Amino acid sequence: MSMSRISDMIEHFIVDMIKARGGHVEIQRNELANQFECAPSQINYVLTTRFSSDRGYIIESRRGGGGYIKIIRADIDSNEYFRNVLEKRVGDSINKETAIQLVEGFYSQGLIDAKTKNIINAAIDDVTLSIIPRPMRDRLRADILKSVFLAVII
Fold it and tell me: In whole angstroms, what is the distance from residue 99 CA to residue 38 CA?
């Protein structure tokens, strides 16, 4: 079976589970790999490419015995404002100034409180991200903002 075919099957299986369980699902990577007779790295590939924040998903992972992956679907399709923010304002890369403006906008609209605003601003600050080279820093900042904004609308 081709890699893309098995990836499609895994994606559809997970999407169906998410729909059946009200927007989120907890899975164990190894169990899913066994079920589809593939390597756990194939499950990782599907999760990172098909269940990204760009597509409206948040993934939480817990390692260790009994560890799991929780996938949450944010309904960005029905929320034009958030979809616009994620696709057009944040995109694949965002500089610090624009990111701070977006966070301030969320705060002024009452979507986040002052403490959350301060936490987000600290997470996306250049000082916090200083270990990352500048071109990659703006991409990481965009990923952080997308994940946070999705968490806000769930």
Answer: 40
Task: State the Cα–Cα distance between residues 84 and 91, nearest whole angstrom.
Answer: 10
CA distance 53 to 31: 24
pLDDT in tens, 42-57: 998 899 888 876 677 8
Report, as ranges of residue numbers, the positions in the chain whose pLDDT lies below 70: 1-3, 53-54, 64-67, 75-83, 153-154
Q: How far is CA 68 from each of CA 30, 44, 59, 60, 73, rounded to the nearest angstrom?
A: 9, 12, 10, 8, 16
Q: Which residue has the tokens 């601003």?
A: 121
Count each helix (H run) and each strand (E run) in the chain, helices first: 7, 3
108-120 burial: b if 16+ Cβ within 10 Å, else e: eeebbeeebbeeb
**Residue written as token pair 């599907």:** 46
Alpha-carbon torsion angle 95, 98, 101, 102, nearest 10: -90
**Using N-to-C axis directions, what is the helix angle for 96-108 and 114-124, rounded to 10°?**
170
Cα-to-chain-centroid distance, residue 10: 18
